[in-house]
Design brief:
single chain, Fusion Protein Consisting Of Minor Coat Protein, Glycine Rich Linker, Tola, And A His Tag, Chain: A, Domain 2, three-stranded antiparallel β-sheet, 3 helices
Length: about 100
């Protein structure tokens, strides 16, 4: 159930993600891992970088995408916890 929910969260956030043009131009890429805390209704409680990509502009872009994507889908009734902590890895790079 948790994996299904995480898949829904990734699909929900994806349209809000933007690879920063300056990062693209400078061939900056990396994996940023965020720690996102939400309530059961999907409202943001907190979001922070758990592990940096090594590029502040990429880290900031991922946090901005998460904030723009709020609220996230409501947490399924079978998932325990309130609030819910999600660890979300995302790769930014040349495609």
């Amino acid at each position: 159930m948790r994996n299904d929910y995480l898949s829904r969260v990734f699909r929900h956030i994806e349209p809000y993600r933007v690879y920063p043009p300056s990062a693209r131009e400078n061939r900056q890429s990396g994996r940023v891992v965020t720690r996102v805390t939400i309530n059961r209704n999907g409202q943001l409680v907190d979001a922070k970088v758990e592990r940096s990509s090594g590029w502040p502009i990429i880290d900031a872009a991922e946090l901005a995408a998460i904030r723009r994507a709020m609220p996230l889908p409501p947490v399924p009734s079978g998932m325990l916890g309130d609030p819910i902590v999600l660890i979300l890895p995302m790769n930014y790079g040349m495609r």
